[in-house]
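It would be a great kindness if you could assist me with a short task in structural biology. A protein sequence and the structure tokens that stand for its backbone fold form the material at issue. I should value your view on which stretches of the chain appear to form regular backbone elements. The record follows directly beneath this note.
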Amino acid sequence: MHLSIYKTIKSERLKLKRSPVWLAFFILPIISAFFGTFNFWANQGLLKNEWYSLWSQHTLFLCYIFMPALIGTYCSYLWRLEHLRNNWNSFLTAPVSRISLYAGKLFWAIVMVVAGNMWIYLLYYLCGRLCGLPGVPPEESIGWIVCGILGGITICCIQLIISMLIRSFAIPIGIGLAGGIGGLMITNKGWGLYYPYSLYCMGMRANNPQMELDILPFIIGCIFYIILFSAISVVCLRHHSL
């Protein structure tokens, strides 16, 4: 099993080599950081909590618009080659298990989320220094990023299902964007733990002035959805016809 997963990870890496999707991964967080930093700079009379206020502005656009769309784009690209011509036949007849086929794609989706969140944190730090904020980001900001990664992986799992079942490249991206925007409304109603697209913004403490999060229910919710959507994906692969 471990060897099969390694083979699929290596195969997916070759598909992603020189992929233009990494441009979106690089550019979209920069755009979000620019708007967030500008808004923070222009409203320093109101936003007086320094690093905390800057983070609130950075995550405002990022968590509800940019990141869900970015995850949707990446997951669509992971399935793009399978949807071209007769590539499904080659994919499903590979001498590895269906679990391994799915694990290879999930692995690179997770890599994107982890790398994306590290890039977001670096931009946050650099923008804080440019704004003249003293010291370094608060220690708890590491927790925001870790929880954001867990919530981002949850979105990856549902977007991988959608991108597997829908041949269009653009439609799953639109669904991811709509899911992220819907997460704003659902989180504001207090139902965020029950809606997978809300978990990323909740983990990142977006639109959360108190920066509070009930960690245990959050982790349980993320793990539940990750297992659920992953199991559904494997079942769909097992029943997919050549």
Remarks:
- The chain is about 75% helix and 0% strand.
- The CA atoms of residues 23 and 151 lie 22 Å apart.
